[in-house]
Design goal:
- By secondary structure, the protein is mostly helical.
- It contains 3 helices and no strands.
- Helix 2 crosses helix 3.
- It starts with a helix and ends in a 6-residue tail after the last helix.
Length: about 80
């Protein structure tokens, strides 16, 4: 959990406000979709529970973003012909 917290803090310290908002919007969309799949609504959860769901989803999105970014950097450095 501490690694996740550190990752999120580092991301939010460096990220631009537009990126932060896009992550939040994607998290809201994903959480709402998951709740819809479970045939539940966000009103069934308290504000704190819903915020916790959002926080967990944001962490998942940020981890995916960082992981994919690292993969892209490796591919571009190992295969320079991909640049063109």
């Amino acid at each position: 959990m501490k690694d996740s917290t550190r990752l999120v803090k580092k991301f939010y310290d460096k990220a631009h406000d537009k990126i932060k908002q896009k992550v939040r919007n994607a998290a809201v969309k994903n959480v709402d979709q998951k709740l819809e799949d479970l045939k539940r609504s966000s009103e069934e959860y308290s504000l704190e529970e819903y915020r916790e769901l959002l926080r967990e989803e944001e962490i998942r999105i940020i981890k995916k973003y960082v992981k994919e970014g690292a993969k892209g950097a490796i591919v571009l450095s190992l295969f320079p012909w991909v640049w063109f």
